[in-house]
Amino acid sequence: MNFTLTAKTLLTAQRYHKRMIGALTEMINDKAKNSFNSRIDTMNIYDRIFELMEKKKNLMFLYCLTNEILSEIDEISAQILIRIFMDDVSKENVAEEFNYSERSIYRKIQEALNEFCLCIDARGYREKVEEIILNTEYLYKTHKILGEMNCSRKALNKKIGWS
Q: Mean of the per-residue pLDDT values for the chain?
């Protein structure tokens, strides 16, 4: 797996993690409530609840890890990554905001992504992050689409089905 692409996936999906965690919490609660009124096999319900809780735990881990890494890296690098990947500001506008030439902003983005990746590596989380992305459908779709195309957030949202 291309780890720079993995970093882009984490940063792009970061803004959706809270919503996804909230949805998983609701699904867990609904399954738990329905288990009391259900005559269906209890073990199947508990297995599903456990599966949902595992997904929620993984998303919470990625959300916290991304925030921690952004707080540890150089402040300008963090702001560039946030503006480009989480706020969906164009590279040209970010270059203008930070007083860089359009050519320089591409180098600055790559340097910031490298710094982000190095922090994940330093913590020993590369394999865990990659495994979670591969096993989480919307993250894997995001990763795959980011690898196939250079697109805006609107194009990505449309392709993945996010609103």
A: 87
C-beta separation of 89 from 153 below 8 A:
no
Range of the domain at 99: 3-160
Report pLDDT digits (tens) over 10-69.
998 898 888 889 998 999 898 887 776 656 667 788 888 899 999 999 999 999 999 999
Q: What is the pTM of this model?
A: 0.82
How many CB atoms sit inside 10 A of residue 15's CB? Answer: 15
Q: What is the pLDDT of residues 4-14, one digit of tens each?
A: 999 999 998 89
- Residues 132/81/71/141 CA torsion (nearest 10 deg): -10
- Euclidean distance between the first and the last CA atom of the chain, given in angstroms as a whole number: 27
* Structural domain count, the chain: 1
SS (H, E, C) the chain: CCHHHHHHHHHHHHHHHHHHHHHHHHHHHHHHHHHHHCCCCHHHHHHHHHHHHHHHHHHHHHHHHHHHHHHHCCHHHHHHHHHHHHCCCCHHHHHHHCCCCHHHHHHHHHHHHHHHHHHHHHHCCHHHHHHHHHHCHHHHHHHHHHHHCCCCHHHHHHHHCCC
CA 65 to chain centre: 10
